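Q: What structure does this chain adopt?
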Amino acid sequence: MVTPVTKKTARAAAKPTAKPASKPVKKVAAPKKMKVVRDSFSMPQDDYALIAKLKEKALAGGLQVKKSALLRAGLQLLDKSSALQLKRVISGLTPIKTGRPKKH
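A:
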């Protein structure tokens, strides 16, 4: 005699009888997310024009960069300079008036 196949018996037959052995999964710690700080500052037009010039120079070398990347790269270079070199570079800058311009 043949037993009729019902939904219940079909599901039971479809389930595997033994679970395959699985290796324990190691959780890899996600790298810490870098916190980004937004800021604003003033600079002379000539220095601001240097950003465009450096972007073109990078593009000619096959690298497309943003202003923030150029500023960060400059900070990295200054960090590697000696105190004397840093003093010379900063002394050569034209002083600018700090603060926001007055509204008219």
